[in-house]
From TrEMBL:
The keyword Translocase applies. InterPro entries: AAA+_ATPase (IPR003593), ABC_transporter-like_ATP-bd (IPR003439), ABC_transporter-like_CS (IPR017871), ABC_transpr_CbiO/EcfA_su (IPR015856), ECF_ABC_transporter_ATP-bd (IPR050095), P-loop_NTPase (IPR027417). PANTHER family: HEAVY METAL TRANSPORTER (PTHR43553). Transmembrane segments: none annotated. This is Cobalt ABC transporter. It comes from Loigolactobacillus backii. GO terms for cellular component: ATP-binding cassette (ABC) transporter complex. It is found in: Cell membrane.
Amino acid sequence: MLTVQHLNYNYPATCGLNDINLQIKAGEFVCFMGPNGSGKSTLFNILSGLKTASSGTYYFNNALIDTTFLKNAKRRQTFHQQVGFVFQNSDVQLFNLTVADEVAFGPKQLALSAAEIEQRVTDCLTLTGCSEFRDRVPYHLSGGEKKRVALASVLALNPSVLILDEPLSGLTPIAQQQILDLLTQLNQAGKTILIASHDYNQIKQCASRFVIFNEQHKIVHDLSATDLMAMPELGQQLTLI
Ligand SMILES: Nc1ncnc2c1ncn2[C@@H]1O[C@H](COP(=O)(O)OP(=O)(O)OP(=O)(O)O)[C@@H](O)[C@H]1O
């Protein structure tokens, strides 16, 4: 479904990603871990089409996602429908005056009927437990509520892949568990989930695969949750990241 080959990304003064190779199949739940600045957000920006690689290739469902692909408005829109991105900072993502408008924003770009849009909004707010604050200003919500609204707004496009950049950071344990339960439910319903997290003990309850970066912006481990569980020393290292 997603194939990345020899991918590099260079910021003006520093390396962002260093020869990344990755293949992700539909239905996987993959957790990306690594020290601060190791490249997780940079990779997520590329996988979600917000940046393009400096070199190397990224294929989504056999389409090469490069600047030429992303310049085509129709293809770009279809791609963004299929690959949803929940940003690390919800305030960057939420810009509408009400929660309901926020969730309706994506479907409105798809030329759906008003009834279909309302149905999607209601369904996504229910799924994420946000119905009770549908008329509130997103900016005034708590961190956990904002995160669930951001997720609802992405789900409203019904993407097959969900990419979430540290969705648990800054949330209370209860809010974290709500997000994890929701992601598990979405994965069981067939969504492919890619998540960045610093909390191995928490994420190991739901991820089936772990991709670990090092400080040189390279992938140093790519292994199943089962294989990782058989490596207690590595598991211990991950709890310290
Ligand atoms: N906008 C930017 N301009 C210049 N350098 C950047 C920019 N964004 C990231 N970098 C650099 O690219 C490298 C990878 O950063 P990235 O944000 O992808 O790491 P990360 O693994 O997501 O980190 P964290 O866990 O702290 O979120 C780092 O060296 C970082 O300083």
